[in-house]
Amino acid sequence: MSALATRIEREAGRTLAPIEISNISAARETTLSRLLMLYIGTGLAFMLLPGTFFGVWNLLAISSHHAANTVSASWVQAHGHAQIFGWIGTFILGIGFYSIPKLRRLNWFALSTVYIAWALWTAGVSTRWLCTVYNWHWRTLLPLSAALELSAFAIFFRTVSGHRPQDSGKQKLEAWVFVVIAGTIGLMLALLVNLGSSIYLALRAARPEIPVNLDQKLLVLETWGFLVPFVWGFSAKWLPVFLGLRSSSGKMLLVAVALNSFGVFAAFMNWTSTAAVSYLAGSILAILALGLFATAEKSAKLKGVHRSFPLFVRLAYVWAVVAGVLGVWAASVQDSRGIWGASRHALAVGFFSLMVFAIGQRVLPAFSGMRLLFSTKLMFASMALLAVGCLLRVSSEVLAYQGILPSAWSWLPVSAITEMTAVTVFAINLLSTFASQPPTLSPNKVSQAPCAR
To answer: Does residue 322 sit within a domain?
Structure first.
């Protein structure tokens, strides 16, 4: 704890007693944990209400009419925006702010900007959902919501970009950091495109619906361009420790990111088949770089989590490959709406959501004041239900939408309810964890806080 003590004494301008250093350290961790829980709680609210529950409502309507175009496009887009930005985006911002060592100085101005970013981001995502669903003053509120989100990101980017390797005791940035930077650039571009499309709709469109061609490209940017690199980057940082894997191959992972980024570029150039192949190749290379299916060097760290944790992490990456394969298939045939939809769901739920369920329940309790996860059984239930629901949804979209098996339309409501149950269990488990009493942080525990290093 000597480095931490030296920094605290330098900031205080005097020599402090060990008990004073301990109290200041504990106070800092407590403040940052509360800040993180604010972001995570907000993300859970978006996940449950405008995200999952509204998505289930849409899917029930589609299933009852046996037609994908039954639901308004603006409703579907509102659901997607709430899930990507409201849920996972809020999680990423919260973890990103929490992980910056310099915030542990508890500078009032620095912390206030983090709360301002939360208010701007929450207001932006909420306004976007409300104005697109209810069409209330949407010509004004739609561009405003996009501007609020971009403003929150600007604060996040300014804070993160001020971080230096020396802040974490490193001499240079590791490969996983560059992968996360690629995801951050993808997020910035997605927000810029979202702002531009919102202004266009406000000036020219009759309804707050992004045109199909632009919406597909925006989805590519939000998923493959933004979320995929973020998941790969944090996987490279955490999975070798959590699963006992060998160290990730940084060079190979950067090549995977380059392939993935080229795929995003190809999609914007309407080179659909090239883009799909690039995503698939990048996903396979990322798995090889992470060594997910190689023989583990050490035993997985399963204390405080369900023993199935490694299985579901690997399953999530299998879903990423499935999404890539379905994308290649969809690009090679005509009238492939169901296959494209299945590919997006395999990526969004099978990969992103399952990784959040697994990693989130592994790291967030520790980040929130060294708490223990409320229930490992609920952790398993949430991951298992999500995996089953995703399997039903992906298979039914291909079989029903493509007219291969008409009876598969009846699977859609089952998949929706199963996934809704999964996210509800996940939220209950995390919220119950946050509501539990954290252990008292001793000086030694403070020095070993997950992101304090």
So the answer is: yes
Q: Which two tokens stand for residue 272?
A: 């659909």
The pLDDT tens digits for 38-53 are: 999 999 999 888 767 7
* Cα dihedral 266/272/278/283 (nearest 10): 120
Give tens-digit pLDDT for 372-428: 999 999 999 999 999 999 999 999 999 998 889 988 888 888 998 999 899 999 999
Residues contacting 360, CB < 8 A, separation 6+: 91, 426, 430
Q: Look up the domain containing 410 and give its range.
A: 302-446
Task: Give the count of beta carbons closer than 10 Å to the beta carbon of residue 402.
Answer: 17
Report the C-alpha gap between 75 and 54 in whole angstroms.
8
Judge whether 338 lies within some domain: yes
Q: Please report, rounded to a whole number, the percentage of residues in the chain having pLDDT higher than 70.
A: 82
- Name the phi and psi angles at 449, rounded to 5: -55, 140
Note whether residue 317 is domain-resident.
Answer: yes
